[in-house]
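Example record used in the benchmark description.
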Amino acid sequence: MPLNRILFSIFLILSFSTFAQNDLDQRKIYKTQKIENQPEIDGVLDDQVWQNIDVADNFVMVEPGDGDPIPESHRTTARILYDDEAIYVAAVMLESNPERTMRQFTQRDNINQSEFFLMDINTYDDGENQTRFIVTSAGTQADARMTGNNEDYAYNVVWESAVTNDENGWYVEMKIPYSALRFPEKSNQLWGIQFAREITHLNSTYVWNYVNKSVGQMSQYTGLLKGISNIDPPVRLSLYPFTQMSVDRFDGNADFNFNAGMDLKYGINDSFTLDMTLVPDFGQTAYDEIELNLGPFEQVFGENRAFFTEGTELFNKGDLFYSRRVGSTPIGFNAVQTNALENEEIIENPDKTDLLNALKISGRTDRGLGIGFFNAITNKQEAVFRDTLTGNIRREISESVANYNILVLDQRFNKNSSITLINTNVTRDGNFRDGNVTGFLFDIYNKANSFNFEGQAKMSNVNLPGQNKTGFASSLSVERTKGNIRYEIGNEFANETYDINDLGVNFTNNYNNFNWGASYQIFEPKRNYNTYRIGLYGQHLRRYRPDVPVNTGVGGDFFAMTRKRFAFGGGMNINSKFRDYFEPRAENTYIEYKPFGSVNAFVSTDYRKTFAYDIRVYFEEYHKSSQSDFNLNIEPRYRFSDKFNMIYEFEYSYQKERPSYVTRTRDQIIFGLRDQKSIENSLEGSYNFSTKQGLNLSFRHFWSVAGFADNGYTELLGQGQLRPVNYDVSEGRDPDANFNIWNLDLSYRWQFAPGSEAVLLYRNSIFNEDDLSYLGFNESLDNLFAQPARHNLSLRIVYYIDYNRVRNLLQG
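Model output (structure tokens):
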């Protein structure tokens, strides 16, 4: 089976690699000019250099309509100039009712409900991998790396912008230095470029170069920027030294910490950039949304460290990179708990590894070859034991020095297709496991952009002490990507030894799954709707070895948005019985759940209004069983002013009488009927004095209680069946749980210079977990507040140093 897949993949590549670039009708061209004197970036377009040059105009609608010309009352124009240091952009947004222009003060990369002007630059004109620059009507900057339709706002570069407004509309000036871009090393540059204007109060978006939403992706519809030639870009070297001071107080003990380090960006050449972090400190990253986890898999968290989120699109190919592995819990952390000798106690067992340094090199050649290299090194961690009789200290290594590497080669062609080769590996000193994974990926469109063929073949190799384990996984899908009616079919496969968990994350293996889907959607407003979509889907899940069915299900979903920006939708599905091979925590063993069905629905009101809300509801029920699952999410938001905004979220979930794993004895796997109730309250608020400084509040309280029925314990038999059994919950064997966690962050952020900022953060956290499942919400909250709270106050200052500015100052 794997050989057939590889041969078929090669056949597809040979078949489609000769397709020509998609012919985009009437692609607009802008011819820029070189200047000697830079315009002042103040938002006032009175500099002489902006006169008598080409104008990009005749914008057309992309949302909600399709190609309608922009009204003369809202005419939008843009101009571009360049020199050896940067490109310069000026834009005019006319507005017949300027008092209706929505201006909300926000911090960087947070557009919210402000209107904005957007420019996309694709320096390789390859239909993908472009950089997006946004300036809102209030002056907020946002920038992102675009890969297809995916926006990565963790990407941050230093550039300048300014906004002004008057009775005729509003105006933008931008300066984008070449240090913020990567482009091929050649005398004449041909860049893809797109301008867009979001008119929020009219619920419409206009673009300069027409976009056919029914075919391909928006990144394939850029215009062409000509005229940039013989530029001599400066050395791309930026330093971000930082210092951080913090005071941490917990349970009567106080610690003072001081740390300093530096991030570095260096342009190796015009196309490739080196990013490095030296002596990193992630003390001010956002807290993880931890929950009570009683399932067989680890909880996965989002990445909050900027170094691991910025410019990582190449390294995320194939989903082989889970960045939280770097600096995660030591691989021997759990084993330490059972390694204490007689009369020994554990006095230290670190729950995370320390990152010593990390670097990444990435870029793309003028022939479309993307190259990425990532490396990180974490320090050795040791657990410390003390003999309670003699006082002797013993140390045991829980994680050795570890080296994490990724190498990616990604060839783009035809402005919409790619072939990728990626390798990840982790090596550890000493008697620990090493991991190595190689993936071959293709993502190919036909000439008409009407069909997409996507596939992956991945091989894992894990070296354990005295054992070598090799695994294989693959996927293949074919999708119709043009027109109102679309459909797809796919297959995913993994053998029983596939394992990428040294640097990636995969919960399951040993599967052979099939899926299909079909949908109908509109791309232009019809009657009362700006858009709507109706979809049908199905799946058939199988075990690879032995070849047995796991589950079969079918369902449908619906989404719609009215002309007044009221969105609603929902879905339902019906499933056959489900064989769960992972809940029992034993090899080749499963529990069989009864057939089940589910329904869900949501509504979302117009965010432009002062008050708006989202409501989501989900219900799941099992056939001829009392087992069920219910979830309700309510999220109101209120905009007090253009500077003050708050969002509250309430979520309630209740899982009733689910047969769940309890424990495993020498010859039995014990299950029990579990009820689990969870309540989560969170609050996000911001008050922005300007677009450069503001206060931010982030609060979350999560409570979850799980209780097992006294007479509901069973023994798992063959064929996934359960048989009642007597199970003694005394002497510390009670599986009930009461989980409570509280986090509060209050920060003041000040961007005191381009690329430089100071952040003052107060953090408060409390945690409690016990087996008192009979307690209600109020009693559990009282128990939580009886625990010692952790208070942390920290100040972090980052200063941006540009090599060229320093050199010019010294020369001056």
